[in-house]
């Protein structure tokens, strides 16, 4: 595919990801509106639109403040959580000169600041990018990836992860994961509340049940949005890697090798696993509509097919 095709792919993926990300706060605020509607109903008659909107504008700032605090905690603990979840260790040039030289050349070719390097001591093949600011940008590779890929393949994988950093994908994914975490928290609270025996008339119980169902529906939709963002960012990083290396066959070859054994033993958290170039936890099922919709990564076969088109 010509460069203009790559740029079009990047533009389309960025626009789609932005639209999906905007949908999260809209979904959260819409959920609040629905909860207030049925909360009024449980107390008496249906509220007027004026009453409902007035209550919504009063409660929404508190909800947004809660979200902001949640974001700040996640932002400050991001790097620590990743290090603990992956058991990755910092690398210096003397320990991995080959990886350092490949990454440095990629960065110098585009005037990009050199991110840090980490390694996971695992014979499987995988890699991920992390960091929310320029000082914390990091590319992490597994021992198996470095050993089993040739220079062109390893360079393509590093270019893929460097593209995630250039595109600020980690920041985007963190935001989507946080929003899903908020919906998960609300769903858990609703489930605990709904499981407790309570008095009240049928109208109260009916309104409460509807609120619980709406919260779980919002949680389900938020997960689908998160998965969609994650898949889009992988396609975008593949396109960015080809733009950096001009070598689509090398990335396709690397993905074929990674698909054989991407499973990192140290990784047990799904929110961390989805940052990798290939999900290191889930045995990839045969692609169909449902597995694609609920997957954090596009099928390897589909990614390779797109790369072969370039």
Brief summary:
With 310 residues, the protein is mainly alpha-helical.
Q: Unreliable segments (pLDDT under 50, ≥5 consecutive)? A: none
Helix proportion range: over 70%
Overall radius of gyration: 22 Å
The average pLDDT value, as a whole number, equals 83
| Overall tally of structural domains | 1
Physical arrangement of strands within the biggest beta sheet: 1-2-4-3
End-to-end separation: 4 Å
- DSSP helix count? 11
Overview of the molecule:
Helix 3 (97-110) crosses helix 5, helix 6 (169-195) packs antiparallel against helix 7 and helix 8 runs antiparallel to helix 11. This protein starts with a helix and ends with a helix. The protein has one domain. It is mostly helical. The mean pLDDT is 83. The protein has a four-stranded mixed sheet with strand order 1-2-4-3, with helices on both faces. The chain has helices at residues 3-43, 49-86, 97-110, 143-148, 151-166, 169-195, 202-245, 248-260, 270-273, 289-293, 300-308, and strands at 89-90, 116-120, 127-130, 138-142. The longest helix has 44 residues, at 202-245. The chain is built from eleven helices and four strands.
């Amino acid at each position: 595919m010509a460069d203009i095709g790559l740029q079009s792919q990047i533009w389309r993926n960025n626009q789609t990801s932005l639209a999906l990300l905007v949908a999260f706060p809209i979904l959260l605020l819409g959920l609040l509106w629905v909860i207030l509607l049925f909360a009024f109903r449980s107390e008496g008659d249906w509220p007027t639109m004026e009453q409902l909107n007035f209550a919504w504008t009063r409660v929404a700032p508190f909800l947004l403040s809660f979200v902001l605090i949640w974001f700040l905690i996640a932002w400050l603990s991001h790097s620590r959580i990743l290090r603990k979840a992956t058991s990755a260790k910092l690398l210096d040039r003397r320990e991995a000169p080959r990886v350092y030289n490949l990454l440095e050349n990629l960065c110098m070719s585009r005037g990009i600041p050199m991110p840090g390097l980490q390694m996971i001591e695992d014979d499987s093949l995988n890699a991920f990018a992390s960091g929310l600011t320029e000082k914390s940008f990091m590319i992490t590779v597994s021992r198996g990836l470095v050993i089993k890929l040739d220079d062109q393949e390893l360079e393509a994988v590093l270019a893929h992860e460097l593209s995630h950093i250039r595109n600020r994908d980690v920041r985007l994914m963190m935001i989507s994961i946080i929003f899903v975490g908020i919906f998960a928290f609300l769903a858990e609270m609703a489930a605990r509340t709904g499981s407790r025996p309570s008095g009240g008339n049928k109208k109260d119980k009916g309104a409460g049940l509807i609120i619980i169902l709406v919260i779980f529906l919002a949680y389900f939709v938020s997960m689908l949005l998160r998965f969609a963002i994650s898949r889009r960012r992988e396609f975008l990083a593949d396109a960015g890697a080809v733009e950096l290396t001009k070598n689509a066959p090398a990335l396709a070859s690397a993905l074929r090798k990674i698909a054989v054994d991407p499973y990192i033993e140290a990784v047990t958290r799904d929110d961390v696993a989805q940052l990798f170039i290939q999900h290191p936890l889930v045995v990839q099922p045969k692609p169909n509509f449902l597995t694609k919709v609920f997957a954090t990564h596009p099928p390897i076969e589909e990614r390779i097919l797109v790369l072969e088109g370039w």
